[in-house]
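Lecture 7 notes: from sequence to structure.
We start with the chain below.
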Amino acid sequence: MSSRRLFRPLLALLLIGTAGVYSAAKAQTQPKAPDTMEARVQGCTACHGSRGQGTDNDYFPRLAGKPAEYLSNQLQNFREGRRKYPPMNYLVTYLSDDYLHQFATFFSQQRPPYPTPAKPTVSAATLARGEQIVLHGDASKQVPACAACHGKALTGMEPAIPGLVGLHSDYISAQLGSWRSGTRRAIAPDCMHTIATRLSDEDVNAVAAWLSTQRAPQNPVPAPARSLKTPLACGSEPQ
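Predicted structure tokens for the same chain:
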């Protein structure tokens, strides 16, 4: 065998070895990403805001201050396909319950300011209808008041009922529509699906419009657990 033919494989091995040494040396000099919750949640904050305050985009809601158990439940719902939004489904597919709960706890402890409420864009009659349903319900449709579960201040209730203030009208409307159609589901008994199916399109629009115009209270924290006796059993809420 000629020396030239021997030289080629030796040169290839030498280049491979050199590349490996270079890669190892480069890896040692690369700064490591900080292992903090702030770093871990960057996949969330890209859409939901640096502290989970929500964004101007109607479909990226506020996470900050919502009960940790509620947020954890929703992350699990995305993972299990009970809620469908491909970027979220993909993001949490391989994350454990414990890891998701860490995310949920982080955002539940954030307290960024609430946005200025939206100015009404619907009629006074529509707003009045929304206020009626939110605060008092509609007995003729067997629809309880939103406030009966989400609290008098509409800031939710521990451990797993979310606040309703600080959300865009379009987001609220879309979620009620998803509950009604069954494209958003929860652990049975799915109380929100039951309630949403009793609402008309006009009711959904009225509730969303009125809620989006409400200012957050001075101390916008969820009500204590079991401080309200909820009118329906909900699978995601311990009874």
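Points to note: Residues 53 and 62 are 5 Å apart (CA to CA). Residues 3-29 form the longest helix (27 residues).
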